[in-house]
């Protein structure tokens, strides 16, 4: 007998008997204003010219008989990634190499070859646009072991090419801290380990942490003809600020230095002790866990929970990004979500990601309601229903865009004592449409939404 998925309540259900009904009137009285952060300029203004200089300094021999090069590309939405990958491919072709794009994203894309192709396509990386074949096979081979019970697996597609180039962003990881975190080494180990390797490695992390990442990366470097790694660093506004071509034998050490640079360019929410953090969208293109825990200050994980700056009491998520293709990994870090999030979830892809990372809590479904008004009222009610004048609310587009965002009146005194953050709009009440959702006019004030 086929059973339909249970629905807790419908849009037509009356919610006026919910305990938060009294908080709805309070939500309508909250005053918000848009603020803007300023940072020192660090953006690369001509990616083509900058990257041409970086690649020109690499002393590579010309290819022999059309040698193949696997160009490893991950699943993150990196600024101008398609431009970087295409120019790298063109550079390799100019030396006579035959590039092949290899998705290096572990179990992402539902752990399917078509899913990983779709992830790349969402970034503008296709065979037609790049002028190179994509080999998205999920097959792996064992290339060694770190201990008798710790086998190391590697992409068969990456094994079969003559050389490798690895392209990735260097940044703090959301799950752990170490000498190297998210970057070239992680891509060579977890990313090119495909779903099989990524699953085993995360299991080992429960007992051993992630200290094995450099060791696996070094194993790959020792066994394969890695031509170079292309390390990308973004600034506070999510724009490329640094591109470094790292020679094979320098990757593990140089990445440690590059990570320190990346940390100095990380954005942050400049306010602390936030009652409600409202986020327009989360997704894999934004962070591995949908919303960067280095920004929200909140993380739940078997290898370690944390709760730090900006010390958010309630997180409300309004939607999934289109580029995440239904992968809602990280949604469990929210307290309340709009029902549109639930309707957008690809549960197979989400569960595959969460189970591979041993993080079922990241896929847990929070409280959900069908309108912004009800979602915010539920948050307010569970905070003890503070007054509209005192509520400390921050409303951002997503955790990669913290240039402009909204704050509530309760943060005005903090704002007046800050440098580098200025108010750029008048105070106004949150405006809702006839359906109880925030008016689109207000949404449009947030870039990219």
Considering the chains and any ligands shown, give keywords for the structure.
2 domains; single chain; Rossmann fold; 16 helices; 449 residues; 6-stranded mixed β-sheet; 19 strands; alpha/beta
The fraction of residues in strands falls at 15-25%
Question: How would you describe the shape?
Answer: globular
CATH superfamily label of the largest domain: LarA, N-terminal domain
CATH topology of the largest domain: Rossmann fold
Mean pLDDT equals: 91
Our count of helices gives 16
CA-atom Rg in angstroms: 23 Å
In the CATH scheme, the class of the largest domain would be Alpha Beta
Say how many strands there are: 19
- Count of spatially separate domains: 2
Give the helix level as a range of percent: 25-40%
Q: Please outline the major beta sheet.
A: 9 strands, mixed
**Low confidence ranges:** 1-6
Going by CATH, the architecture of the largest domain would be 3-Layer(aba) Sandwich
Q: Would you write up a description of this structure?
A:
The protein is built from 16 helices and 19 strands. It is α/β, with parallel strands linked by helices and 449 residues long. Strand 5 and strand 6 form a beta hairpin. The longest helix is centred in the middle third of the chain and has 15 residues, at 194-208. The protein has helices at residues 21-27, 47-56, 81-94, 113-122, 127-130, 156-160, 184-191, 194-208, 213-223, 251-264, 293-296, 339-344, 347-356, 372-381, 412-416, 440-443; strands at 31-37, 68-73, 98-103, 133-134, 140-147, 150-155, 163-169, 226-234, 240-247, 274-279, 298-299, 306-307, 312-317, 336-338, 367-369, 393-396, 404-408, 421-423, 428-429. It is globular and about 75 Å long. Strands 1, 10, 13, 14, 15, 16, 17, 18 and 19 form a nine-stranded mixed beta sheet that branches. The chain has a six-stranded mixed beta sheet with strand order 4-3-2-7-8-9, with helices on both faces. 31% of the residues lie in helices and 21% in strands. The relative contact order is 0.15. It folds into two domains: 21-39 and 267-443, no CATH class; 47-264, Rossmann fold (3-Layer(aba) Sandwich), CATH 3.40.50.11440. Helix 1 (21-27) packs across helix 14 and helix 2 (47-56) packs parallel to helix 3 (81-94).
């Amino acid at each position: 007998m086929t059973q339909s998925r249970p629905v807790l309540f419908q849009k037509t259900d009356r919610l006026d008997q919910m305990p938060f009904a009294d908080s709805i009137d309070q939500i309508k009285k909250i005053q918000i204003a848009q603020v803007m952060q300023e940072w020192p300029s660090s953006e690369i203004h001509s990616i083509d010219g900058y990257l041409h200089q970086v690649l020109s300094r690499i002393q590579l021999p010309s290819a022999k008989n059309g040698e193949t090069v696997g160009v490893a590309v991950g699943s993150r939405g990196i600024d101008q990634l398609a431009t970087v990958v295409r120019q790298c491919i063109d550079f390799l072709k100019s030396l006579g190499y035959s590039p092949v794009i290899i998705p290096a994203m572990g179990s992402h894309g539902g752990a399917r070859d078509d899913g990983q192709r779709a992830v790349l396509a969402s970034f503008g990386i296709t065979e037609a646009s790049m002028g190179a074949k994509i080999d998205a096979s999920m097959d792996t081979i064992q290339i060694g072991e770190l201990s008798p019970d710790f086998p190391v697996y590697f992409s068969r597609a990456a094994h079969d090419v003559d050389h490798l180039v690895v392209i990735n962003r260097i940044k703090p990881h959301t799950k752990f801290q170490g000498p190297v975190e998210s970057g070239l080494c992680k891509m060579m180990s977890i990313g090119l380990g495909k779903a099989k390797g990524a699953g085993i490695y995360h299991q080992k992390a429960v007992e051993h942490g992630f200290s094995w990442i450099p060791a696996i990366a070094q194993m790959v470097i020792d066994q394969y003809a890695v031509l170079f790694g292309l390390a990308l660093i973004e600034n506070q506004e999510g724009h490329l600020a640094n591109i470094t071509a790292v020679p094979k034998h320098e990757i593990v050490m140089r990445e440690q230095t590059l990570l320190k640079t990346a940390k100095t360019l990380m954005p942050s929410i400049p306010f602390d002790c936030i009652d409600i953090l409202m986020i327009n969208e989360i997704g894999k293109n934004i962070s591995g866990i949908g919303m960067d825990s280095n920004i929200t200050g909140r993380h739940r994980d078997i290898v370690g929970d944390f709760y730090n700056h900006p010390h958010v009491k309630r997180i409300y998520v309004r939607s999934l990004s289109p580029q995440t293709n239904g992968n809602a990994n990280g949604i469990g870090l929210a307290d309340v979500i709009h029902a549109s999030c639930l309707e957008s979830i690809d549960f197979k892809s989400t569960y595959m990601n969460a189970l591979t990372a041993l993080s079922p809590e990241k896929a847990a479904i929070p409280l959900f309601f069908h309108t912004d008004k009800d979602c915010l009222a539920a948050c307010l009610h569970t905070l003890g229903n503070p007054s509209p004048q005192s509520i400390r609310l921050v409303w951002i587009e997503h955790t990669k865009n913290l240039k402009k965002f909204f704050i509530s009146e309760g943060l005005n005194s903090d704002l007046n004592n800050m440098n580098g953050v200025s108010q750029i709009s008048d105070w106004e009440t949150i405006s809702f449409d006839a359906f109880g959702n925030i008016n689109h006019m207000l949404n449009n004030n947030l870039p990219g939404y």
